[in-house]
Amino acid sequence: MSAKVKTHDQRKKAHRPKGPWLNRVFIGMLTFCFGLLTFIFEGFVLRDIETIRQPDWETYRSQRSDQSLSELQVRSSELGRQLADLDRQIKRQEAEQRVLQDGSRNLQETMRQLVELQRLSIQKEVAMSEGDQANLSTALNQFLETQTRYQSFNKQLQDQHETKRLAEDEKRSVDDQVQQATAPIRREYDQEIRQFFMRLALYQL
User: Fold this and answer.
1) Do 22 and 74 lie in a common domain?
2) For the residues 116-141, what does the mean pLDDT come to?
3) Which pLDDT does position 56 carry in this prediction?
4) Longest dimension (CA), the chain
């Protein structure tokens, strides 16, 4: 009899509702809201992680550069600007030289025509007009002046090319020294970057 009563009580407990339906709905809503808030919070956290900036190479290098390395970098920049300025000067000089060369060719053609006219005049035993003689004299003077200017431009170009060559040699030497001095800093920076991405991956987990 006692066993039957216990079995009956157990069945009643099994079928007894765990709580009013309103409580169950409330608990379900709380669970849903908690999950939603957790999802939103994770989104904020992931966005914040993505905004973390990796170490900047230029900043990292400047912070770890000594005085001698900084001076080498400054000198390399100065030489770079000097070379750029020399390139502009050389291009300008070459353009002006081409203009002079074209003018010289035109003067040569004018002189050739006037000389041919003078030759014909001599053959025909006819004197050249004063105008033709003046034109020939003017063309000759202009040609000689143009040739002098052309030679001067040529000398300037030679000097500028030599200055450029010396500057390029010095810049290569300075850049090699900068590269050698920067190599250990670069290795440290690469290690720092690897650690940064490892931390970032751990945060995202």
Assistant:
1) no
2) 72
3) 76
4) 165
Residues 6+ apart with CB under 8 A from 174: 72, 75, 76, 79
The whole domain housing 117 covers 57-204
- 90/180 same-domain check: yes
Q: Which residues contact 198 (CB under 8 A, 6 or more apart)?
A: none
CA-based angle 86:90:95, to the nearest 5? Answer: 150
Lowest mean pLDDT among 2-6, 67-71, 76-80, 173-177: 2-6
> Where do we find the tokens 């400047």?
62
pTM for this structure? 0.54
Residue in this structure with the two tokens 């390399």, named with its chain if needed: 76
CA atoms within 13 A on the CB side of 200: 15
